[in-house]
Amino acid sequence: MTALLQLKNVSRSFGGVRAIHNVSLTLEPGQIVGLIGPNGAGKSTLVNIITGVHPASSGEILHKGEPIQRLKPFQISARGIARTFQVVQPFPAMTVVENVMAGAMFAAGIASMDDARRVAMEHLAFTGLAAFADRPAEQLTLAYRKRLELAKSLAMNPHILLLDEVNAGLNTTEVEQALELIRAIAARGISIVIIEHLLKVVTGLCSRIIVLHHGELIADDPAADVIRDPRVIEAYLGSRFAERQMVRP
Amino acid sequence: MIFFQYLANGLILGGLYACIAAGFSLVWGVLSIINLLHGSFIVLGFYIAFFSYTVLGIHPFLSVITSAIVLGGIGYFVQLGLINRVITRSVLVTLILTFGLELMMNNAMLVSFSADYKKVLLAHPLGIAHLGNVFISLDRAASTVIAFLLILLLWLLLRLTSIGRAIVAVRFDREAAMLMGIDVNRTYAITFALGAAMAGAAGSLLSASFPVAPLSGPLFLSKAFVICVLGGVGSVPGAAVGGLAFGLLESFGAVLFGSEYALTLAFVVLIILLLVRPHGLLGVKGF
Amino acid sequence: MTRPQLLIFVLVVALLLALPLLGNNYVLRLATITLMYAVLTMAWNVVGGFAGYPLFGIAAFFGLGAYSGAVVQSSGFPIALAWIVAVVIGTAFAVVLGFILLRLRGHAFAIATLVIAEVLRELTNGWTSLTGGGMGLNLPFFGWSPTALAVFFFYVMLGLAAAAFVTTYIVAHNRLGFALNCIRQNEDAANIVGIDTTRYKIIAFTLSGAFAAAAGAVYASWTGYIEPTDVYDVLFSIKPIIMALLGGMGTVFGPIIGAVAFLALDELVWRNFLQLHTGVLGFLIVVLILFLPSGLSAFRISNLWRKAVSA
To answer: What are the percentages of helix, strand and coil residues in chain A, rounded to 5?
Structure first.
């Protein structure tokens, strides 16, 4: 059985800077994978490369066996790979439901606008935003905007969802709620790659963690092992910090 | 060889074009607005030189100074009083505003000076030099030299003076510049004034070499635009290089296609550049 | 549309259809010009209003349509064929140009389109054998009475405006309009959400070009004589923008309201300033930009009308 998503020796340079170097990894269906690393490690860049925003300088990306590294973002979205942005990117003047309809109509390919609206309302209900359906997107608070990003991505009918720092800027309660939502999404059978800074989130949620450092993949192991990996600890702040952050099962 | 004649013509044209484009490029790079008044500023600079000579006998090269001062002043107040109010709004709005102002200025000049093409006929021209088989009009050559000197002056100003460095800072990062205590509005006004001054100077410089009418404004503007794209928006050295390239292009192009197609040729080059380097050329504002 | 909206709409259309009964050629002429500008503004609105790409060179298509139609007509072909050819050429040019220019955004796009119009003017001026160059092109016409001509062209322009309106309405309410709306607000997000932005932008650009070319072709036949500086005049590029700003950019009725308002002002105000005509226009543009940023909707008139007729 071919892997859902496979990266082979993917590299990307901007000018003289090596943002991503020789990254290879495989994603199987139904996994929740954490992607961690210090600032500037290349996590967002990797997501950008997978979704076609930046082309890879070299290497291959295979989606269900099909090479996608040359495809444009809209083509990759249509194939079922969705992502959220660290800095949310809504359509500010459109209503909340219209934002979600965009995902349903284009990436998911729903032809009728009425059908798209219905589907959008379902996703809004799922993410707890149904009450805001006809409000302009720019009126939402940050936590709700993050949920809107999620709803929009879900409307795209993805089987792979890349979450880029979905918890940035949220308080503890909001983080808890976001995690609940992510678990619910995973329960639907969507494979998730979650980029995170909070180790507690990652260890609580993910079965497997990938660590990037200076654009290179330095670890790709089950959660518990990754925390103890000396290279990972070195890349971060030290063993005591790591131990303090780890969730006891 | 006739090649060298065209080369000489092209280089001389190039200097003047560089001067035409430098101010425009600076304003575009720093204020992020395309100043549709630029063409009319050049034309006004021309008329200042024209009337200074015909009425007062002042040589156009001296008028460069008066033009620069007058246009600089006009530019300063136009920016501070009018353009600054809409500078944060969309491209459309700022362009339409400068268009409206340009209509007013153009109409005023048309009414004041009539639509005829005029040119300064020097009573004592510097004459024509012969370098082998190449004929060079010394007046034009002198204009070009002065044009390059002006560009050099501008470049030095940006590099060495505090106001110059403020301009560069604002260009690279407006927010950071504000945090550092730079008065962005005043900087914008000064930049615009500099752009206008360069335009006025250019107008005076070409008064003895080329016939100009109020109608010439839009043509200068179009050429300035293409030169900026060639050389890199916001870059003064870029304007110099772009101007030279454009001058050469026009000189050799006139031979091959006829001088009426100057703009068409430039635009074809522009299109090719866009196709070959679509994001790099116009997306990046070089320095 | 609701019942009252439909009623207003039918009433307006009926009034327009009956206009020739007034027997006043001058009014008919004014109405025809207004309709022409309405078409141009609606054409502009698809690219400039819906997609948010500042198109500053719609005169390029207008002039191209005018000359294409004029050349065909003066070669002895029927007028309808001339107009069809003009639209085809305008459409083809829009597709090609769209591919090249729609990579640009903001200022670069604006000025590039402006320069295209200038370039076309230069080319038309130079190609004397085909276009008559600077001496212009005369169009033959069947010897009808002035009144018959006035009525004929009024109805043609009315038909074109109706077509443009229907197109605008359909675009605004279907996927294309939705996609353009997304592109305008956040093009990067639009790409990510699965919108093939290039394709939709080109479609919008093509619609713009087609209608502008049609307007140009009819204009050429109507006036009977065209020259490059006339049909490629930058004011044909700019006035639609002003009208769209006046009436409300990116709306369905805005372009029409704006065109009517602008030409009413033109007729009542600055037409009387012969020599300073463009200067006064410039002044009014400056005033509009500085003091009425959202156009007539600031006066609520446009808003009320829009509320009355929006679906």
So the answer is: 40, 25, 35
Nearest to C47 by CA among C290, C259, C255: C255
Chains C and A touch (3+ CB pairs under 8 A): yes
Picking from B241, B214, B258, the residue whose alpha carbon sits closest to that of residue B110 is: B214
Euclidean distance between the first and final Cα of chain C, in Å?
A: 5
Structure tokens at B200: 């006025």
> Is any Cβ of chain B less than 8 angstroms from the Cβ of C244?
no
Distance from C-alpha of A164 to C-alpha of A72, rounded to nearest angstrom: 19
Helix axes B138-160, B60-78, angle to 10 degrees: 40
Q: Render C44-95 in DSSP notation, one character per residue.
A: HIIIIIIS------HHHHHHHHHHHHHHHHHTT--HHHHHHHHHHHHHHHHH
Closest chain B residue by Cα to residue C122: B261
Give the 3-state secondary structure of B4-32. Answer: HHHHHHHHHHHHHHHHHHHHHHHHHHHHC
C-alpha distances in Å from residue C228, one per residue of A227, B128, C119, C128 = 74, 37, 11, 11
In this structure, what are the phi and psi dihedrals at residue C205, rounded to the nearest 5 degrees? -60, -40
Q: Are C167 and C146 in contact (CB under 8 A)?
A: no
Cβ within 8 Å, pair C110-B95: yes
- CB contact set of B16 (below 8 Å; sequence gap of 6+): B143, B144, B147, B202, B205, B206, B209, B243, B247
**Directed axis angle between helix B162-172 and helix B184-205, to 10°?**
110
Contact C108 B89 (CB under 8 A): no
pLDDT tens per residue, range A127-146: 889 999 898 988 888 888 88
Q: How far apart are CA A137 and CA A148, in angstroms?
A: 8
For B5-23, the pLDDT digits (tens) are 888 888 888 999 999 999 9
Locate the chain C residue with the closest alpha carbon to A85.
C189
Distance CA B208, CA B119 (A): 6
Nearest to C71 by CA among C215, C209, C217, C212: C217
User: A158 CB near a chain C CB, below 8 Å?
Assistant: no
Tokens 């990254």 -> residue:
A23
DSSP string, A31-73: -EEEEE-STTSSHHHHHHHHTTSS--SEEEEEETTEE-TT--H
Beta-carbon separation of C193 and A107 below 8 A: yes
Inter-residue contact B212 to B51 (CB < 8 Å): no
Alpha-carbon span C67 to C44, nearest angstrom: 20
Q: Which domains does chain A have, with CATH numbers?
A: 1-80+160-249 (3.40.50.300), 90-157 (no CATH)
Phi, psi of A216 (to 5 degrees): -115, 150
Rounded CA separation C77/C29 (Å): 26
Would you say C214 and C87 are in contact if contact means Cβ atoms under 8 Å apart? yes
Interatomic CA distance for residues C295 and C302, integer angstroms: 9
Q: Residue A16 — pLDDT band, cuts 50, 70, 90?
A: confident
Task: State the maximum Cα–Cα separation within chain C, in Å, rounded to a whole number.
Answer: 59
Q: Which of B120, B136, B95, B116 is nearest to B5 (CA)?
A: B136
Residue of B35, B79, B85, B95 to mutate, testing the C interface (most C Cβ within 10 Å of its Cβ): B95
The DSSP bridge partners found for residue A23 are A10
| Cβ contact A43:A97 at 8 Å | no
pLDDT for the residue numbered C250: 84
Side chain identity, residue C79: I
Answer yes or no: is the ipTM higher than 0.90.
no
Indicate yes or no: pTM above 0.90.
Answer: no
pLDDT tens track for C148-178: 888 999 999 999 999 999 999 999 999 999 9
